[in-house]
Amino acid sequence: MKKKNFTLIIIVILSFLSIACSDNKINKVSEDEKEIENDIIEYVDDIEIENEFINMGFKRGNILKVATPSLEGNFNPVAYDSVYDSWISEMVFDSLIDFDENGLANDNGLAESFEISEDKTIYTFYLKKGVKFHDGKEFTAKDVEFTYYTLADPYYDFSRNSEIFDIIGVKEYISGEIDKISGINVIDDYTISFRIKEPNVKKINEFAYGIMPMHYYSFKNFEEFKLLLDKPMGTGIMKFKRYIKGKSVELIKNEDYFTDKAKVDGVEVELIPIESHVFTLTSGEVDICNPEANLINYEIMKNSKIVNIQEFIDNSFRCIGFNLRLEKFSDRNIRKALAYALRLDDFVETQWKGFARPSYSPISPISWAAPDLTELNKYEYDVEKAKKILRDAGWEKNADGKLMKNNEEFIITWTTYKEAEWSLNLLNTAKNNWGELGIEVIPNVMEFDEVINEVFDKQNFEVFNMRWSLSSDPDPYELFYSGNDEYGKFNSVGFHNDKADKIILDARKEYDKEKRVELYQEWAKLANDELPYIYVSIGTTIWGVNNRVKNIKLGPYSDWVFNLDKIELEY
What we know:
The structure is a single chain. This protein has 571 residues and is of the alpha+beta class. It has 4 domains: 1-54; 56-93 and 236-306 and 547-571, Periplasmic binding protein-like II (D-Maltodextrin-Binding Protein, domain 2), CATH 3.40.190.10; 95-226, Dipeptide-binding Protein, Domain 1 (Dipeptide-binding Protein, domain 1, Alpha-Beta Complex), CATH 3.90.76.10; 316-541, Roll (Dipeptide-binding Protein, domain 3). Helices cover 32% and strands 20% of the residues. The protein contains 18 helices and 23 strands. The strands form 6 sheets. Strands 11, 12, 13, 14, 18, 19, 20 and 21 form an 8-stranded mixed β-sheet that branches. A 4-stranded mixed β-sheet has the order 1-10-9-8. Helix 1 packs across helix 2 (31-51), helix 11 runs antiparallel to helix 13 and helix 17 (498-509) packs antiparallel against helix 18 (513-530). The longest helix has 21 residues, at 2-22. The protein starts with a helix and ends with a strand.
């Protein structure tokens, strides 16, 4: 009960202060209001003093509890779309290769070692022996083969298989031309090789799919396979215990893990609205959360007696995506007009107050291939330039102030999710700014999981906003290569550009890092000019961690799951 009261009081204080500060006409606070404010402050002071000695998280014992704003239930390495479902998958499953804190591949996964042929087209993995799945059955090369055949199943309809298309025979297998993939070869129980069509410098990173046990997941039809998506089983550091839809996922320690075991007895990932994350953290209800990076959340966590803050510039970008298949967005000049008409610099400053910076391309400034910002168009606010571009394209305001062309009104339906404050605020900013041009913006607000379905699985949208988390390699293949413009794939905007495709493919074949840098910087300039997305911002990520959680170091490539073999809890 005290936890709920504490949360309520904090909300009251925030509301009171925002009202008192928002109206410049208010210069004087009444005596009654002062008395109420003093009572609130005294009450919170009492709680803060108490929190110096009481950490509510101790009551959970050796169970780590993490807040999440979304759980789709696709807890499977070949099926998840969201980073939140990936947390569950990464705890339950292991992949052939692993990654270090800099996002670089190593052989700390299920492979004891691996070899790459001299011509860079054959990858041979020598598997660890004695590794057991959570039901006690032994892991072998047949399970690896099964996992990759599942990705190539003709009825596979998720978005995570684009990285297997360069394996010889995969596309023919998917189309039904052959019944065996010649590029996948099980040599013995502990050795498997993959042959790809041509060299790909980042291919080793693409052997990061969690390996599924064939005996558990084997299926007669793909719908049968889907029945187990929310009942995962692998070789991972945690065993799945239960999933309560719309509430939480519980996992327990894998006592038979083949390498460093978890020091915690279990993990609970609870579905909590993101606007409540900091309050559940400061009350001790959860141990870890990743709230919206803004000044209010930062200050609430900073002032808590039980919270440590970890922050860093993220390897990601927020964006506005266009359905380029629609005529009104197919002309890049129209997209540029919309970019010039947005007050993005003001929005980024107002929304994040120093916890974000404007973004001008899909490559993060922390990337080893980050472009020179002086060579990119920043699309600074210029509504007159936007109007001229639209007039030149045949769009004119009518007597009612509506933007028209060939008797068609310029209307944009904007699909967004309500779990994040910035999403709704960006929508309202666009509605106001583009309204000055005579464009009507119609909100289409839904749950995050529904947005994923509409945008990627159905491609049923006009405009949407999203935050993309990137890997350590800036390869844009999955998001922007024209061959990935299919239902369920990540090129949902339908970007087709011959020059971009050539750069993307050339960079994947180039093993000289300096030359790759040149190619990706050329790509960044092209992406900045073509604007398949309007690039909104690059964020500072903030994590709140209960100070009972020890040995956790978070970064762009190392989330809390990455730290799970090191984390210890006080209780």
